[in-house]
Amino acid sequence: MTIDTLKSALPDYAKDLKLNIGSLSNETILDDEQKYGCMLACAYAVGSPDIVKNIAAEAEGKLSPEAAKAAKAAAAIMAMNNVYYRSVHLVSNDTYKTLPARLRMNVIGAPGISKANFELFSMAVSAVNGCGMCLDAHEAELRKAGMTSEQIQASLRIASVINAVACVLQAETAAA
């Protein structure tokens, strides 16, 4: 089970997705930890068993155990943070922006891999989850760490493709 398995499962109407998911593993702007970490984090963010199994199989041997754990941790912590901070951003009452979150987020400070790579995984997951406040915060941290616009954009491309493939495969399963 790999990206090729996901490609072959996509229907003909999703030909562009077949091409895009096929090109993810050929991405050269990111190193393997960054690329496969973003892919795995996004797979966990979409939560589809087929996506998780196939992306995990694709990443096996390309990610250290620490990087795989950090990718999963990014998906987990962003599942919480993206809902909280998106809500704070969307609520008209600015009082909520001044209140402490009072949510534990220790993994962000000690992710077990480079802070920049964890931020990149978190950026990709925040794109999947649609939190503009988190996207801005992670992008600022990535810029401070010296990441280029092209590297940051690559994480967003990965997020968009993994999310779209999950949506199509889930819809096809529902239609069957």
TrEMBL record:
<dbReference type="Pfam" id="PF02627">
    <property type="entry name" value="CMD"/>
</dbReference>
<dbReference type="GO" id="GO:0051920">
    <property type="term" value="F:peroxiredoxin activity"/>
</dbReference>
<dbReference type="InterPro" id="IPR004674">
    <property type="entry name" value="AhpD"/>
</dbReference>
<feature type="active site" description="Proton donor">
    <location>
        <position position="131"/>
    </location>
</feature>
<keyword id="KW-0049">Antioxidant</keyword>
<dbReference type="GO" id="GO:0006979">
    <property type="term" value="P:response to oxidative stress"/>
</dbReference>
<keyword id="KW-0560">Oxidoreductase</keyword>
<dbReference type="GO" id="GO:0045454">
    <property type="term" value="P:cell redox homeostasis"/>
</dbReference>
<keyword id="KW-1015">Disulfide bond</keyword>
<feature type="domain" description="Carboxymuconolactone decarboxylase-like">
    <location>
        <begin position="99"/>
        <end position="175"/>
    </location>
</feature>
<comment type="function">
    <text>Antioxidant protein with alkyl hydroperoxidase activity. Required for the reduction of the AhpC active site cysteine residues and for the regeneration of the AhpC enzyme activity.</text>
</comment>
<keyword id="KW-0676">Redox-active center</keyword>
<dbReference type="InterPro" id="IPR003779">
    <property type="entry name" value="CMD-like"/>
</dbReference>
<dbReference type="InterPro" id="IPR004675">
    <property type="entry name" value="AhpD_core"/>
</dbReference>
<dbReference type="GO" id="GO:0032843">
    <property type="term" value="F:hydroperoxide reductase activity"/>
</dbReference>
<dbReference type="InterPro" id="IPR029032">
    <property type="entry name" value="AhpD-like"/>
</dbReference>
<keyword id="KW-0575">Peroxidase</keyword>
<feature type="disulfide bond">
    <location>
        <begin position="131"/>
        <end position="134"/>
    </location>
</feature>
<protein>
    <recommendedName>
        <fullName>Alkyl hydroperoxide reductase AhpD</fullName>
        <ecNumber>1.11.1.28</ecNumber>
    </recommendedName>
</protein>
<dbReference type="GO" id="GO:0015036">
    <property type="term" value="F:disulfide oxidoreductase activity"/>
</dbReference>
<feature type="active site" description="Cysteine sulfenic acid (-SOH) intermediate">
    <location>
        <position position="134"/>
    </location>
</feature>
<comment type="similarity">
    <text>Belongs to the AhpD family.</text>
</comment>
